[in-house]
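pasting for the record
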Amino acid sequence: MADMWDTVLDRLEADLAAVERGLGEHHPPSESAVMAAQLGTWVPPRGLGPLPAHLLGRARALAAAQARVAERVDAVRITTGQHLAALRAVPPLPGQPAIFVDVEG
């Protein structure tokens, strides 16, 4: 059972690391990274059994890290929503469509 739990914790840690990498970039995390952050919906695989006592510290640290990252993802979501609202508030220029958009600026 402990080997199965090690595998599960390894996977959860890898998913969390992917989300953290996405948050560290200069643009919002990818959809797959955000989907990996859906931490509250995780269900343990069948037959996993109880968490072995020697893995309790690792599991607690992972849960705390997941909570911190979930807060960061939520903050990015709120900021993105605010940016989208601001962009939608700008009226389009009549007549001539935009030729390019400067995304580096």
